[in-house]
Amino acid sequence: MRSAAAPRPSAPGDDELVARTAAGEEAAFRLLVDRWERDVLAFLTHMTGSRDDAEDLAQETFVRVFRQAGSYRAEGRFRSWLLRIAGNLARSRHRRRRLLKWLPLDLERHDVASATPSADRRLEAEQTADVVRAAIARLPVRQRQALVLHRFQGLRYVEVAEAMGTSLAGVESLIQRALAGLRADLIRRGETP
Predict the structure, then answer these.
(1) Under CATH, to which class is 105-193 assigned?
(2) 3-class DSSP state for residue 192?
(3) Where in the chain is the domain with CATH 1.10.1740.10?
(4) Cα dihedral angle (113, 114, 116, 121), rounded to 10 degrees?
(5) pLDDT at residue 181 greater than cutoff 80
(6) Architecture of domain 13-102
(7) Closest by alpha carbon to 143, among 93, 106, 181, 94?
(8) Average of pLDDT values for 39-56?
(9) Whole-model pTM?
């Protein structure tokens, strides 16, 4: 006769893992990396337009998390703190490399091509996605970051504000200006999607 299995303890939360990382526990740090690496890579790929750059920056991000774990304040959300570090590193790299072309977004998740059987419609949808990617790439960095965090990473305005180190009103303004800028840019170029 089998005895009932003991209930599995729940996985430790991010705040606990950061505290354990600050105390030097590498296993806790590894759990944080495993838990958040995909989100950080997706965000940085959107921001840089390059998987290679995103991988480099993700590594730098987690090195910073390890080094700065002791400065993390648990009353904030870990995801916002993590994405703020990643965003700051991406902006720093952008400033150093003014020639970097930004943000070929993975719009396939948000694109109608997958729902249309026609090859012509798929091609048209891909071309539309390319036009939108190019327009987003021309946005100022802070507007682009706010838009990507909200629309493509799914963060709420409050979380975007935390991640960017700005106010809620600042985020609302950045996103409104980004959308207005996109609209104006597309109209000016005659490329309305």
Answers:
(1) mainly alpha
(2) coil
(3) 13-102
(4) 20
(5) yes
(6) Orthogonal Bundle (1.10)
(7) 181
(8) 89
(9) 0.58
